[in-house]
Amino acid sequence: MFKTLSLTVLLLLTIAVSGQENRKFIDSLQLRLKATKPTDKAAVYNELAYTFRYMSGDTTLIYAKSAVEYAIKHHDKRNEAEAYLNIAYVLKDRGQYQDAVTYQLKALRLCEQTGDEKKLASAYNALGITYKKMRRWDEALVYYMKANTLAVKFKDYSRISFTYNNIGTIYLEK
After folding, report:
1. Alpha helices (H) in the chain, listed in sequence order
2. Which of 44, 56, 59, 73 has the maximum number of C-beta atoms within 10 A of its C-beta?
3. Contact 123, 104 (CB under 8 A)
4. How many CA atoms lie within 13 A of 84 on its CB side?
5. Is 38 within 8 Å of 74 (Cβ atoms)?
6. What is the mean pLDDT of residues 52-80?
7. Separation between Cα atoms, residue 37 and residue 16, nearest integer Å
8. Residue 40, SS3?
């Protein structure tokens, strides 16, 4: 009984501290946003959107759409791609798979234009996840394989393991 109570208290304290740290990080990003010149705002908006991904889809969308606006205005294709991936993440989680694919493909095209292969790997993996959710196994597998090829190229062992896991789940569920 004491062990269970101790673990529960420890877990609650960890969550409380984590929440405070997250709030501080968000506050610092919002302060940075105010001090940032317009040409760099898209990057900060993307950081905010990414930070809110697991807390509030609506807030993520607000920040990501602001990032798109600034990125387009300042011809920043890398941050535009990142913003589209943030938008797609929320749409996928809401079950709006076809809309998510649309944004992921926009991001993919921008990554190809800029030559940002690391972000391209993320776009491939995101498309694989969305197609898997849609039960479109063959398309999911194609994008997972592309993500894996880039992960191997960059010797990104964490991403390699994720992509192999994703590929394995396709064969398991197919």
Report:
1. 2-35, 41-52, 57-73, 77-93, 97-114, 117-133, 137-153, 157-173
2. 44
3. yes
4. 27
5. yes
6. 95
7. 34
8. helix
Q: For residue 80, which of 113, 117, 121, 31 has the smallest C-alpha distance?
A: 113
Rounded to two decimals, the pTM is 0.83
DSSP 50: H
Both tokens of 137, joined, read 């196994």
* 32 half-sphere exposure, CB direction, 13 A CA radius: 15
What six digits make up the tokens of 155? Answer: 């010797």
Residue linked to tokens 């798109």: 68
pLDDT of res. 15: 42
User: For the chain, which domains are there?
Assistant: 116-174 (1.25.40.10)
What residues contact residue 135 under an 8 Å CB cut-off, 6+ apart? Answer: none
3-class DSSP state for residue 125?
helix
